[in-house]
């Protein structure tokens, strides 16, 4: 029997069907006989111990301009779903965190992917710090004196918001740049959280590699090369995806991370590697499935469903 899969995501009419990972996960689910239900986090409700969602039965097609059909609006008890895919885009803010708290009430009887408790406990730039020897030199603080001392030591630095995403708010500060003070003032006005400061890695000019791990095992990678004159390599910021194989160091990083990710119920994870360094572990809404498929001729989304069905005893 097929699974009933509730997909917590952004509006389906806005997705890019040639790049969106949730879209191909949904197509793969349909191929395997699973039923889809779409809802947005703003329609997630907790009342008297019950978790419900207002949304629509959904059918997907790879047809540009006609890629989905929705049924009549209805409210479902998410405890009666087999799987909830938590796939709304970051930012990882209090709205995101609140959704994890609500979904915690139905997991693991209803399998939430990824585990909402572990998503909450693994913000992507902080989670890396749990693994010694993998990060570049890194500072997390609101203390301006500490930031200035870090810059004096490393000269060339990257400054970014601790809970940012998609390359937004990432600044490359060179040794002679006079804007650091103003930048920190701006960050203080925009964010209550500390900033993250890292030694600049010139290897980023050769690319920032996104590696997909499913149930702790690497299944593919793409290299994202920044545009000329741009410090950011994120595809949202114009980074160009290119075919890539894993290096020996990258396989070593995956071997270190894999058992921990699997134990935590982080089934679908994207990690970012620049040179020999791990910079982020994305557990919220990783991307890259379609790019890997185009370059490698594989379908990594099917391996996600293999892992989910195995956990549910349906393999």
Automatic annotation (TrEMBL):
<keyword id="KW-0460">Magnesium</keyword>
<dbReference type="InterPro" id="IPR004215">
    <property type="entry name" value="GSHS_N"/>
</dbReference>
<keyword id="KW-0436">Ligase</keyword>
<keyword id="KW-0464">Manganese</keyword>
<protein>
    <recommendedName>
        <fullName>Glutathione synthetase</fullName>
        <ecNumber>6.3.2.3</ecNumber>
    </recommendedName>
</protein>
<keyword id="KW-0317">Glutathione biosynthesis</keyword>
<keyword id="KW-0547">Nucleotide-binding</keyword>
<dbReference type="Pfam" id="PF02951">
    <property type="entry name" value="GSH-S_N"/>
</dbReference>
<keyword id="KW-0067">ATP-binding</keyword>
<dbReference type="InterPro" id="IPR011761">
    <property type="entry name" value="ATP-grasp"/>
</dbReference>
<dbReference type="Pfam" id="PF02955">
    <property type="entry name" value="GSH-S_ATP"/>
</dbReference>
<keyword id="KW-0479">Metal-binding</keyword>
<dbReference type="InterPro" id="IPR004218">
    <property type="entry name" value="GSHS_ATP-bd"/>
</dbReference>
<dbReference type="InterPro" id="IPR016185">
    <property type="entry name" value="PreATP-grasp_dom_sf"/>
</dbReference>
<dbReference type="GO" id="GO:0004363">
    <property type="term" value="F:glutathione synthase activity"/>
</dbReference>
<comment type="similarity">
    <text>Belongs to the prokaryotic GSH synthase family.</text>
</comment>
<dbReference type="InterPro" id="IPR013815">
    <property type="entry name" value="ATP_grasp_subdomain_1"/>
</dbReference>
<feature type="domain" description="ATP-grasp">
    <location>
        <begin position="125"/>
        <end position="309"/>
    </location>
</feature>
<dbReference type="InterPro" id="IPR006284">
    <property type="entry name" value="Glut_synth_pro"/>
</dbReference>
<comment type="pathway">
    <text>Sulfur metabolism; glutathione biosynthesis; glutathione from L-cysteine and L-glutamate: step 2/2.</text>
</comment>
